[in-house]
Specification:
two-stranded antiparallel sheet; alpha+beta; 35% helix; 6 helices; 188 residues
């Protein structure tokens, strides 16, 4: 069943993106998901206080929007949730305000978005919406590469890559603890 806000044209676009996604796939290890809506950051949970019985409750003000994003992701990813480590590449295309002039819009397109919205809140929202759809839990995400850029139309492009449990390069095998031990040995 479709959420009320998602109309038939959105479903047609999702099917087209899914078809393109199948054409782009070179292996089963990568999945490209396109969320065709202006990105917004995750908001904090709210608390209400009922004064009659002195009991309050906590609620998510974006629950409906998160369900819609999960539905869009499900429509483009037809596999069961992955249970191993994954890496995410995220590009948040932030829609330019209508009040900007054509010259200013042309100058800002594809430049970094550095306004007051925090990138980590965008990432958390996408990871939470992907729980149970792309992967079982967002604790499986071992690497994230993300950026915010200005665009004419807002959307989010996500590439999920299934990682193997073995570290591939010698650079990744050195940890922060190993380098700090080496520095201590050099100073003594």
């Amino acid at each position: 069943m479709l959420p009320k806000e998602i109309n038939k044209s959105t479903v047609d676009r999702i099917k087209e993106y899914s078809r393109l996604n199948l054409l782009k796939k070179k292996s089963v290890n990568k999945s490209v998901i396109i969320i065709d809506r202006n990105p917004s950051p995750l908001k904090r949970y709210r608390f209400t206080n009922n004064s009659r019985d002195c009991k309050g409750h906590t609620y998510n003000p974006q629950a409906k929007e998160m369900n819609e994003i999960s539905f869009i992701i499900k429509s483009q990813y037809s596999y069961p949730p992955y249970d191993g480590p994954v890496s995410l590449d995220l590009i948040f295309y932030m829609q330019l305000p209508r009040s900007y002039s054509k010259i200013k819009k042309a100058r800002l397109v594809n430049t970094y978005h550095t306004k007051h919205l925090d990138l980590d809140n965008f990432i958390k929202k996408i990871c939470d919406a992907s729980n149970g759809v792309l992967f079982i839990d967002d604790c499986q995400v071992v690497r994230i590469n993300a950026k915010k850029v200005w665009a004419i139309e807002g959307k989010t492009v996500m590439v999920m890559t299934k990682e193997n449990n073995e570290q591939t390069s010698s650079e990744e095998n050195t940890s922060v603890e190993d380098t700090s031990v080496e520095e201590e040995e050099e100073t003594s």
